[in-house]
Write a structure and sequence with these properties.
about 90 residues, mainly alpha, 3-stranded antiparallel sheet, about 10% strand, globular, disordered N terminus
Protein backbone atom coordinates (compact mmCIF):
# COMPACT_ATOMS: atom_id res chain seq x y z
CA UNK A 1 0.00 0.00 0.00
CA UNK A 2 1.16 3.54 -0.60
CA UNK A 3 2.00 6.14 1.98
CA UNK A 4 -0.35 9.12 2.14
CA UNK A 5 2.67 11.36 2.80
CA UNK A 6 4.07 10.32 -0.59
CA UNK A 7 0.84 11.47 -2.26
CA UNK A 8 1.06 14.80 -0.48
CA UNK A 9 4.70 15.04 -1.57
CA UNK A 10 3.56 14.36 -5.17
CA UNK A 11 5.47 11.12 -5.64
CA UNK A 12 4.07 10.14 -9.06
CA UNK A 13 4.15 6.37 -8.53
CA UNK A 14 2.27 6.72 -5.25
CA UNK A 15 -0.27 9.08 -6.86
CA UNK A 16 -0.86 6.62 -9.69
CA UNK A 17 -1.37 3.76 -7.25
CA UNK A 18 -3.77 5.94 -5.23
CA UNK A 19 -5.80 6.84 -8.33
CA UNK A 20 -5.96 3.19 -9.42
CA UNK A 21 -7.05 2.18 -5.94
CA UNK A 22 -9.80 4.79 -5.92
CA UNK A 23 -10.98 3.82 -9.42
CA UNK A 24 -11.64 0.14 -8.72
CA UNK A 25 -15.20 -0.82 -9.52
CA UNK A 26 -17.28 -2.01 -6.63
CA UNK A 27 -19.88 -4.76 -6.91
CA UNK A 28 -22.59 -2.11 -6.91
CA UNK A 29 -20.82 -0.24 -9.75
CA UNK A 30 -20.87 -3.46 -11.79
CA UNK A 31 -24.59 -3.92 -11.13
CA UNK A 32 -25.29 -0.33 -12.21
CA UNK A 33 -23.29 -0.82 -15.43
CA UNK A 34 -25.12 -4.01 -16.38
CA UNK A 35 -28.56 -2.74 -15.32
CA UNK A 36 -28.34 0.42 -17.39
CA UNK A 37 -27.21 -1.46 -20.51
CA UNK A 38 -29.73 -4.30 -20.51
CA UNK A 39 -33.40 -4.17 -21.53
CA UNK A 40 -34.48 -6.15 -18.48
CA UNK A 41 -33.10 -8.71 -16.09
CA UNK A 42 -34.12 -10.78 -13.09
CA UNK A 43 -31.96 -10.42 -9.93
CA UNK A 44 -30.78 -14.04 -10.29
CA UNK A 45 -29.32 -13.18 -13.71
CA UNK A 46 -27.23 -10.42 -12.11
CA UNK A 47 -26.20 -12.87 -9.41
CA UNK A 48 -25.03 -15.46 -11.92
CA UNK A 49 -23.41 -13.06 -14.37
CA UNK A 50 -21.52 -11.01 -11.77
CA UNK A 51 -20.93 -13.86 -9.30
CA UNK A 52 -22.59 -11.99 -6.42
CA UNK A 53 -25.38 -12.80 -4.00
CA UNK A 54 -28.92 -12.33 -5.24
CA UNK A 55 -29.56 -10.22 -2.13
CA UNK A 56 -26.83 -7.72 -3.12
CA UNK A 57 -28.23 -7.55 -6.65
CA UNK A 58 -31.79 -7.05 -5.39
CA UNK A 59 -30.77 -4.36 -2.86
CA UNK A 60 -28.87 -2.41 -5.52
CA UNK A 61 -31.66 -2.76 -8.07
CA UNK A 62 -34.23 -1.57 -5.52
CA UNK A 63 -32.06 1.49 -4.86
CA UNK A 64 -31.98 2.17 -8.59
CA UNK A 65 -35.79 1.90 -8.71
CA UNK A 66 -36.09 4.36 -5.82
CA UNK A 67 -33.77 6.76 -7.66
CA UNK A 68 -35.93 6.32 -10.79
CA UNK A 69 -33.18 4.84 -12.96
CA UNK A 70 -34.98 1.49 -13.29
CA UNK A 71 -38.55 0.27 -13.45
CA UNK A 72 -39.65 -2.82 -11.54
CA UNK A 73 -42.29 -5.14 -12.98
CA UNK A 74 -43.81 -8.36 -11.71
CA UNK A 75 -43.49 -9.69 -8.20
CA UNK A 76 -47.18 -10.39 -7.72
CA UNK A 77 -47.63 -13.83 -6.16
CA UNK A 78 -45.31 -16.23 -7.96
CA UNK A 79 -44.67 -13.83 -10.85
CA UNK A 80 -40.95 -13.18 -11.40
CA UNK A 81 -39.61 -9.69 -10.70
CA UNK A 82 -37.78 -7.95 -13.53
CA UNK A 83 -35.94 -4.67 -13.59
CA UNK A 84 -35.63 -2.60 -16.75
CA UNK A 85 -33.90 0.66 -17.50
CA UNK A 86 -35.85 3.86 -17.93
CA UNK A 87 -33.12 5.24 -20.16
CA UNK A 88 -33.63 5.38 -23.89
CA UNK A 89 -30.83 3.26 -25.40
CA UNK A 90 -31.20 5.13 -28.70
CA UNK A 91 -30.54 8.83 -28.00
CA UNK A 92 -31.76 9.80 -31.50
CA UNK A 93 -35.36 8.80 -30.64
Amino acid sequence: MFALSAVRGKDISACTEYIFYMAKMTTRDKIWNVALRKDSMHPSEFSERLEISERTARDTLETMVAMEWLEKTGGEGSEAVEYSTKLNPDPDH
